[in-house]
Write a sequence for this structure.
């Protein structure tokens, strides 16, 4: 095995999608408790784009190169894994490469019936949705989830996971075609926000218990309006931007919980705990066909710039994957 490998780096440290270039770098060496994975496929996520632009830095000790999730074969074993095992894994970075290392506890078996491309699209979105919708949001069967950004990688996963858990889903997206895609994925109510106000629709549906929001800004006061007493609002991004007034009285009167979280800065033990929960709760849904990875585009590793540009353009449904 060569000591060098191809990985994708951002020329100049930060820049546009075209700045992503294949480079030769030393193959990473696992430390005790880490596995080395021969990467077959890597997921492309919106946080990678934010990192490429110079924000969302890798946590201490993580590779500087991009890529938060991969699927592939174990080359150097640790923990429960031996050479040749097929895994998908949540990484601190470095997934856009021929080889990646990770804490052995952050890898999961490729679910039965899935290939590497499908499996590579699971860890970042499944961990994020599980932590935010089911742990922080405490969504239960019979409750209603309001989900914004329905056709994003996160959105397509959240629709299916909430349905698998027995919840009702109201999903919002921008445009009629996206609203139709969200409905086809299982959303009970799908709102095209360019044509109708999600606040009116949610009120007509009797309100919502949990909101998963990646938009914030102008969505914030509307979310509070449509939440039932005891509702939980979970922020995972603020793509709508802007500062908002905090309506303290409404929060108090409805006893609302407003929270948010990011996956990447969590410590290794916390990610290992989450991996255990995901394998226990979500892997059976995948193997029962209740959760499918929705992959719109695949690109070879060397075309990581095109892959990110596709995600940036926002014309995708679900995930964009690099093949290695
Ligand atoms: N907190 C965490 O741990 C965590 C982890 C992973 C991802 N994230 C965040 O979650 C979001 C989704 O990630 P992803 O990889 O699934 O991204 P993605 O596939 O690129 O999707 C981005 C989504 O955001 C929507 N959006 C963007 N700006 C909007 C606006 N102003 N109003 C309404 N909708 C808007 C897009 O809607 P259109 O399709 O209509 O453009 C699209 O559905 C990103 O913001 C990402 O940074 C957070």
């Amino acid at each position: 095995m060569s000591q060098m490998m191809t990985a994708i780096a951002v020329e100049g440290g930060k820049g546009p999608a075209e700045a992503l270039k294949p480079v030769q770098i030393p193959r990473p060496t696992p430390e005790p408790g880490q596995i080395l994975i021969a990467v077959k496929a890597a997921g492309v996520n919106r946080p990678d784009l934010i990192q490429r632009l110079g924000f969302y830095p890798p946590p201490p000790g993580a590779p500087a190169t991009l890529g938060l999730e991969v699927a592939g074969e174990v080359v150097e074993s640790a923990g429960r894994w031996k050479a040749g095992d097929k895994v998908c894994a949540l990484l601190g970075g470095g997934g856009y490469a021929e080889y990646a290392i990770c804490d052995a506890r952050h890898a999961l078996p490729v679910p039965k019936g899935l290939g590497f491309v499908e499996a590579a699209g699971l860890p970042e979105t499944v961990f994020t949705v599980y932590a935010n919708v089911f742990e922080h949001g405490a969504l239960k069967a019979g409750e209603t989830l309001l989900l914004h950004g329905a056709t994003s990688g996160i959105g397509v996963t959240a629709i299916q996971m909430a349905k698998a858990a027995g919840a009702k889903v109201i999903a919002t997206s921008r445009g009629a075609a996206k609203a139709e895609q969200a409905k086809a994925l299982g959303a009970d109510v799908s709102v095209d926000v360019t044509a109708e106000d999600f606040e009116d629709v949610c009120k007509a549906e009797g309100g919502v218990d949990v909101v998963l929001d990646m938009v914030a800004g102008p969505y914030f006061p509307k979310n509070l309006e449509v939440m039932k007493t005891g509702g939980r609002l979970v922020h995972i991004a603020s793509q709508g931007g802007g500062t908002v007034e905090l309506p303290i009285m409404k929060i108090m009167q409805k006893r609302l919980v407003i929270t948010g979280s990011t996956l990447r800065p969590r410590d290794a033990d916390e990610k290992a705990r989450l991996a255990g929960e995901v394998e226990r709760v979500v892997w059976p849904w995948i193997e029962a066909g209740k959760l499918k990875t929705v992959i719109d585009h695949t690109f070879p590793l060397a075309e990581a710039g095109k892959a990110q540009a596709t995600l940036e353009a926002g014309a995708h449904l679900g995930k964009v994957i690099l093949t290695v």
User: Anything to note?
Assistant: Residues 45-47, 124, 128, 149, 151-155, 173-174, 178, 214-215, 236-237, 239-240, 261-263, 311, 314 surround NAP (CB under 6 Å).
